[in-house]
Amino acid sequence: MKEKYHTIAFSKGDILIDEPNKEIGILLDRYDLFQAWSCVDSELHEYVEDGPVWVWDIFWVGSGAWLIDRIQIYTEDGLTALVSACILTHIKNI
Q1: How many angstroms separate the first and last alpha carbons of the chain?
Q2: pLDDT band at 1 (very low <50, low <70, confident <90, very high)
Q3: What is the domain count for the chain?
Q4: pLDDT tens string 29-50
Q5: Looking at the domain assignment, is residue 65 inside a domain?
């Protein structure tokens, strides 16, 4: 059964703080994962019944951020779960 969390309105420029890992992330861009891959596989949308899967590109900085992998993709549902569980702190862009 899918856990239900409060909706969090993420926006470009919002900051995420991962205190245990000493990382700070900045939300760069939000897009439908399967729409982005539709140019590779035109039949991909046929397998997605629950609508779009929203993902965010996040630019991470900090002591442990890999130099070559500073931009990582997180699903919006995953980010919501991490913030709701107090694993990440979300700071709105003003």
Answers
A1: 35
A2: very low
A3: 1
A4: 999 987 765 555 555 556 556 6
A5: yes
38: tokens are 């539709």
Element (H, E) at 36: helix 33-36
Structure tokens that stand for 15 in this block: 């900051």
d(CA 19, CA 87): 8
| Measured torsion, CA atoms of residues 66, 70, 73, 75, in degrees rounded to the nearest 10 | 90
Lookup result for tokens 């993420």: 10
Indicate whether 6 belongs to any domain.
Answer: no
> In angstroms, rounded to a whole number, what is the distance separating the alpha carbons of residues 14 and 21?
18
Asked whether residue 40 is assigned to any structural domain, the reply reads yes
Structure tokens at 50: 């629950």
